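Fold this complex.
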Amino acid sequence: MNRFRKNVLLGFSAIAVIFSVSCKRDKHPENLIGPEYKNADPGFYVVNNSFTAAPSDLIDFTKTQVGFNAQFSQEVTYFLTLRSEKGASVTFTDKAADLSKVKWDGGHNGLYFFNANDKVFAELSFLGSNVKLQDTLTVKTPKSYGRLVEDFEAATPGHLKFPAGWYTFGKEASAKAVDEDKYYNGVVAFAANNPKTIQPPSGIKYFKVMGTDANVDFFIDGAGFISRLNLVTANTDSIYFNMFVYGTGNVSDKGSIKIGEDDNGKGGVQDLVEDELFYDFKINWTGWKLVSVKYSDFSFTAANTGNRIREPKKAGKMGFALLSDPSGAKTSLIFDYPIFTYGKPLPQN
Amino acid sequence: MITYNIMSKKFLLGLVIFIAVCLQNANAQTVYFNGLGRALVTTDQMKGNALTVNQGGVPKPDTLSGRRATGGYTIFDLGVNAQPNENLRASAILRIRNDFGGFYGNGSSVFFRQLRIDGVIAKIVKYEIGDIDLGLTPYTLYNFDESYHDYEADVFAIRRSIVNYENFNFGNKWRLQGAHANANFRFTKGIEKIGVRVFAARAGKKDVLDLVNPDRVNWGGRVDLVQSRFFHIGANYIQMLDLAGTVPVNSFEFDNKVGTVDFKVGYDNDQIGAFVYGEAGFSKYSFFKALNDTTVKKDGNFYDIGVSGEYKPLKIKVFASYRNVSDNFNSPGAQTRRIFDYGVPDLFPSIKGGPDANGVQGIRQVGLLDRISDESVRNLNIMPVLMAYRPEYNNITPYGTATPNRKGISFGASVGEMEKVVKGDVKVDLLSEVVGEGSTDTRKFTGVRGGLFFNINKLINWERALGINFGYRYEHTKRDGGNQIDLKSSLLDAGINVEVVKSFDLIAGYKMLSAKGNEYILVRNEFNTLVTPVQAYSDVDQPNTILSQGFNQGLLAAGIRYRFTKNTYFTGQAVFYNNKSKLQTSLGDFDYKINQIFLNYTMVF
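Structure:
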């Protein structure tokens, strides 16, 4: 019996340990987890089978948002998916009896942007029902997220094109001999049947600098432009430069973003005597990734003798340089949709 | 796993040296060999409405998807164990594989299937380094079975054992790459022993060129105190985390800690046994993703306590337990599924004209046949996120005993053992959700499973084997309120084996899965957070849902088996698989049949 008593005591002790370990039950302030949903009951229908978007044609997202009209026979979880032919998409889902809360501002989920002239297919479906309704929209001007520097597409509404155009730095990636497997410095157009091209986040074109650091000085080549950026704030903590950069998996890939400021107000940006800001980054990922840098995080190029004040309103020159880290390697800088945004970085989906 | 082309001269040279050294050492009796050889061939035919395409409402033949296939392979796993002394052993399993249709080296491959060093330090600490099998408790590190198959027929168990072997599913342990050490300290008074074990291992394979994802490891251990056979208590800890600095920039930082205490206390003698047992613990989850600069943290916990009794003369056991696992309890090592329910099967992957632009429609779903025979739909990595599952296969505990958001009672009984006339058991789960998912109402789960092996030969004193088996699993998921759920599924197993001539068996089995009703699942995002509801099972015609009125899978197999030794056998089987599942009626009916001839010779030495 002594052994039995001993075991009973041990048992109670063990149970006490068990409950003390798990006594801190996690409490939910709400009484459910996950998004609340409601499936369609039998006999569910959309009133008059009507599903429309307004506006639906030649939508200018710099001036308007799109609303959707549809009323349901009950409160239900709906899925409204908008999809372009080029892969851009956005989905709205909620539990409601109509679509009055849905306002599409031209934004997207995922990587790909809705672009000018896109035909957009809208599909409305419901949880627990096979009811499906469709509509088609067309985009005239895509959403503006800020000061788009360049999207490398043909001139389209809402896309800024710098009149001076781009120039290359004329170094190791800008060889005269045409050999796209070794050197490249310019715009590339995506073609589905060309595996050497990549579908960019916006449109079908992107910029590519590729070359070998033949003189082993870390710097390979680059491209840029001289043109007033007309940024509208002097607050360097509230302005961000963003662009999508494609990582190839090559360990030596490195890029550098440069911004020149017209310190003396004479127009243009003079080399060495006016401020140049730079931001270097290793491209240590594969696929497209958004790079966002606060203006105040750019560093001053030591050799330049400007006023050493970060002045976004004076920004008038940009450069996108390809580096090699370590030196002497073949590297590439592939980027698209360089844009300045105010207050926050470009939204990341 | 390192793979080499068989034609590599360097590798061939190395192989020759390796074998020569082995033979040299074998003569010195420091090396011994073991291994497995297997030849496997299947020839298959598929037919049914899944091989039609819907053109304007008129079914036309699908000219893109395959209808017949023959495949297989021959493998030879040579295990070489070098043991210079009793404290050290190095072992490697070298695999030579020749796919069916490969000749003169084309289609052949040679690679190391396993590399391991183990031994004993100072006669106290046992250690293993390399490819090791690790497991702790059902709430910490446990590779739970992919579905209920305790009483399936030999004819299917043979197929499943091949898939298990190919995917290192040995018991309920995970095959990981790392190190493991354990030591037992025995005492003469007061307590019997204290055991200590620690381990550290990768959570899964990683491409050496992967510069984005950091190395993800599991490390942990267990300390258990055995006072006597009447009482033991243990403490377990496992942490899965990303190692900072293993990539240039940490894009992800995953960190999950699980700590538990388990015990067993009671009394037994030659006649009876009675015990109280349990386990309880906590989890702390944190995941940072640099891309959207977000960190999500969650804390969870659980307790599981039970009683058991045994009457030994009759081999009768009964048990009952209660558990409560919070919805945020996160234990990747115990909750990761070993099968991809939404994987693409190797056999006849394309139906209905092939995959659509989204890669969804036109892919044959993994069914009963694939779950016992397809080597490619198993998961070998411990996942940080709860994997998607199909509710008709297991809706009550899709993530094993540690399935989060479950509470309730389980009880059952067992009788007999395999060496006797009868072995059988039954288990009942009466569980519910702790908190509703997407609804204030909670699901109620009722599950019954059990079966028996009946060794008829022992009853009639026949010297050869004659056995039948029967297994059944029933699940009912129900939720009331505004989002009603009502899903019933049944899984049936039946089988027979008859040793007609010494070591020559006739084997046959039948397996059936049916389901009816509706169910919704909330998809999880990368932070393991429930985000989007989808209709996982429905009687409504929707994309990627199964129509209940048509869902029924039947698998019938019959054949012969000749046992050369206990582990060396040849089997030939005819398999008939009938899948009446439907996916989306806008594409027409999805029912199909697969007829298969399966030949397999397996030798273990």
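Chain A touches chain B at residues 3-4, 7, 10-11, 14-15, 17-19, 21-22, 24-26, 28, 31-39, 77, 93, 125, 127-130, 247, 249, 251, 282, 284-286, 289-290, 348 (CB under 8 Å).
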